[in-house]
Predict the structure.
Amino acid sequence: MADAIITPWEVKGTVDYDKLIKDFGTSKISAELKQRMKKLFGELHVMLSRDIYYSHRDLDAIIGELEAGRKIFIYTGIGPSSEMHIGHIIPFAFTKWLQEKTGANLYVQVTDDEKFLFKKERKLEDIERIADDDILNVIAQGFDPDKTFIFKDTEYIRNMYKLATRIAKEVNFSTMKSVFGFTNSTNVGMIFYPTLQMEPTFFENSYCLIPAAIDQDPYWRVQRDIAEKLGYRKAAQIHSKFLPPLTGIEGKMSASHPDTAILLSDDEKTVERKVMKYAFSGGQQSVELHRKLGGNPDVDVSFQWLSYMFEPDDKKLKQIEDDYRSGKLLSGEMKQILVEKLNSFLSEQRKRKEQAHKLVEKFMYTGALARKMWDTYYE
Amino acid sequence: MADAIITPWEVKGTVDYDKLIKDFGTSKISAELKQRMKKLFGELHVMLSRDIYYSHRDLDAIIGELEAGRKIFIYTGIGPSSEMHIGHIIPFAFTKWLQEKTGANLYVQVTDDEKFLFKKERKLEDIERIADDDILNVIAQGFDPDKTFIFKDTEYIRNMYKLATRIAKEVNFSTMKSVFGFTNSTNVGMIFYPTLQMEPTFFENSYCLIPAAIDQDPYWRVQRDIAEKLGYRKAAQIHSKFLPPLTGIEGKMSASHPDTAILLSDDEKTVERKVMKYAFSGGQQSVELHRKLGGNPDVDVSFQWLSYMFEPDDKKLKQIEDDYRSGKLLSGEMKQILVEKLNSFLSEQRKRKEQAHKLVEKFMYTGALARKMWDTYYE
């Protein structure tokens, strides 16, 4: 089997998550570490107990800081390339839980520059429109508006550029080539951009924890190489797997292939149609055969989505799994369970997005953390 | 003879200025073009009549615009790498004349980012200190404070970054490599930086004229390749030769080799000592021989400096040249003439620099053009 391709801009093939841990030099989140988190936080998020967040760097140090009563801060981001889909929400749902449990400041970088620079045909005004919509969807997660700063690179560059030049001075083209696969044909904006994605790890003088999908790891490898030279700390990460595309468990969902994704804007009928038509099934070819042989939840995308986050109740999930394996639960019924869960999630999301409009100013400019950040020039 | 090395960061060897015109694909400023300028402006600056500004691109188009009563704008810059020397003042003295004659808006870019990024050992705080001092020296030239905007890249980036990403998207690493001689070891800040030096050519929707030494030409070659794709005009340039170092006519003066340069901060005694001790002389080895054979003004740095700008009176300059060739004027006397001219220039510069302190706000933030620029976000 050919190796999967994993870069911040492309995920192709069947991802061997254990191999990524070896290739990237990260660590598996151990049972002992989970135990410490459970004790510290009073509970464990299902994305941790179910190994959706499965890999890390220095998470033990972060837990140690929190156990000792010291502060950490959290940093994540969103790339506004096209409308947000359900896979984009995973890190934010998890991050919301992290902020609740730690009380930490959260920085959300909206990488409008990156997404504009990355593809020739993209126009900046389209990216900005998408970015504004993404910001509403992020706010809808319910973060603390006085402890959360959401910023677009093209705006906050005014406070970031000086420190960005210090970061950029530590990284040459060779490094960018080998870490990100850049070539001589890569435009010079993309070559510079990673310095800006590294910079928020230096926003506070304490430990930074980054919850993100594992494809973002190259940035943090470079960050960890240069942080101490610049007088800062290496950032800690907690890496998630990718929510599989509707059409099968390979690769990553993409809003540019609408059949593979449920968009946050999809209405109830569209959700039902997409799941019924495209969700890859682990069932048998006929009801008779399914009743006799049972289905395979390991490749059934509807079951996988339920287990990623949409059925948080472990007992109920186990029942669904057992019933599917035994043939009691049919593929169509499995899909119906997911459709209901998705539509109830999306309906809630839409409602909170409506209310998010009036919070944009606070998260971006006038909340306690935002105000402090606009007064801070990083050098 | 090995070719001279000419990049924006290094000038070494004897510069063959005619060859540069061929290599860079620029044009000589013709007698006819000078005639048109003389008619238009009422006079010709000595740096034009004496071919210090000797090469151009599209200067004819600029003159055409002005003849037709249309507006142009002027853009130049200063790299704050070390204290300003007398060679740095040449483009500003000439630019002051250009603004007076054309009434054009002038943009002065202070490339603090570039100078920090370029050398490993440089600290940003030192660069900023130098930049602030350079700005005083620039203001001392007497520009129109309501038609001149002086800005540091690290500050004005807030208004420039969006358009910079559009520029950066049009330029890949291959181009930067071949135009600027960048390598895989070049840091990614330097690789991105040229987009910022190109951007001010897009500040107005009219023709841009750039007076600068010819080593800056690589930027304008790239600018001319991409300007029209981005919906802007190709920038016009007028290129000067380099004021030769005190120690001989090769290369370019450098403040990091204090013997080769007169710094704007040098006091009268220092100026006299440096010129007397280091200024390369075209004279003979003894007074007797000099009286008999005469001196050679073509290699005499003191004479060259007088002819670059410090003796603006053509008749007096001709007399000095003739007297030197005939042996009537001794090398020490030639040096004394230069010392007096330099000290009178520097005394005036110091006086105006003192007064410049109270104008900084206006040129950078509160003058009519500066206010407009801080309200303008380039996209």
About this structure: Chain B has 19 helices and nine strands. The radius of gyration of chain B is 21 Å.
